Amino acid sequence: MKKVNREKAGSSAVKLLEREVSILKRVNHEHIIHLEEVFETPKRVYLIMELCEDGELKEILQRKGQFSESETRHIIQSLASAIAYLHKKDIVHRDLKLENILVKSSDIDEENEMKLNIKVTDFGLAVQKMGGSESMFQSTCGTPIYMAPEVIFAHDYSQQCDVWSIGVIMYMLLSGEPPFMASSEEKLFEVIKKGDLHFKQPIWQTVNKAAKNILRLLLKVDPAHRITANELLDCQWITKVPNSYRNIYFHNIHGNEYNFLYIFILPDYIQFYFFAVCHNDGEKSDTEIEIQALNSSASCLGLLKQKEGGGNSGATIERCGATRTTALPLVILANNIREKCGNPGNFLFHCKQWEEN
Q: Which end of the chain is more exposed for a tag (fewer CB within 10 A), N or C?
């Protein structure tokens, strides 16, 4: 329950509360706190929220010291899902922090990992954009260690400030410490604006490189280069699915000078097979296309020389519907696609893990 004394709080605090109520009444997401009821008296306003028995995420972190990578992944996926939902509705939270994430329940899985059911709460500083503006906020607000650089500058910031806060939270979950620290608020703001991210503590030696890369994407000083909440949800570290499994659209492949495409395979994941589904005049064809593949970088260079008239430089081309590779990059030739589909404007490329019979 949240209560506000009208007389003591003042008109500005009451207006913030009214705005919070207005936003909470418009949202419905499994990881956003649910507003059950609002009661008003001449002196007080009471917000009745759903019960979160396990308290604040901050309290659990303080008890544990840090979360495992698997536990952190589960929390960040839930948090990103909630924030992506808000951003789709043009709502910006502006005060994401550990204290504003409540834990409704917790379970221990078969690997002895803690799985928390989190709820984003406290929408007192949240605002809803009007007119579809991407950069409309010009006031400094929030909690210093979670503030994005553009919020500190108080200059035309957008919903990407929430993404920065997700990055700070993720860093703290994994290490138990904020990514940026200083002896005073003024010095802290200077450190944040520089955005020099370090992984010097011993704990980071146990954290996967992919998780550190996600943090670098979340804590980009320039919000234009920062990933969005939706993009975070699609990151391999979150989904636990290799990037190479994803559907990738290539446009106007018939205009490719050398008639091949680069597909980059993560070295951690080996043995894949490939097929393409063509799109002709916007209609999907279910025909699977046989694809030629080169499985070494040396072959890539050889192919380029061949196409430039350099003769056969020793490139080995496997003509097959499925190929195994451990190399980077993998080159997929487009010749077969044109032969079977004419000149498709687009085609959908699929890459899945090889399964032994």
A: C
pTM for the structure as a whole: 0.67
HEC-encoded secondary structure of the chain? CEEEEHHHHCHHHHHHHHHHHHHHCCCCCCCECCEEEEEECCCEEEEEECCCCCCEHHHHHHHHCCCCHHHHHHHHHHHHHHHHHHHHCCEECCCCCHHHEEEEEEEECCCCCEEEEEEECCCCCCEECCCCCCCCECCCCCCHHHCCHHHHHCCCECCHHHHHHHHHHHHHHHHCCCCCCCCCHHHHHHHHHHCCCCCCCHHHHHCCHHHHHHHHHHCCCCHHHCCCHHHHHCCHHHHCCCHHHCCEEEECHHHCCCCEEEECCCCCCCCEEEEEEEEECCEEEEEEECEEEECCHHHHHHHHHHHCCCCCCCCCCEEECCCCCCCCCEEEECHHHHHHHCCCCEEEEEEEECCCC
Tell me if 104 sits within 8 A of 124, measured CB to CB.
no
Q: How far apart are CA 171 and CA 276, in angstroms?
A: 39
Partners of 273 in the β-ladder: 352
Report the DSSP beta bridge partners of residue 44: 5
Closest to 148 (Cα-Cα) out of 219, 83, 217: 219
Residue 90 annotated among the catalytic residues of the structure: no
Q: Catalytic residue among 54, 95, 122, 196, which?
A: 95
pLDDT in tens, 36-49: 999 888 888 888 99
CA neighbor of 197 nearest in space, from 184, 182, 210, 178: 178
Distant-in-sequence, close-in-space partners of 95: CB < 8 Å, separation ≥ 6: 122, 124, 125, 126, 141, 142, 143, 146
- Number of Cβ within a 10 Å radius of residue 157: 25
Q: Max CA-CA distance within the chain?
A: 88
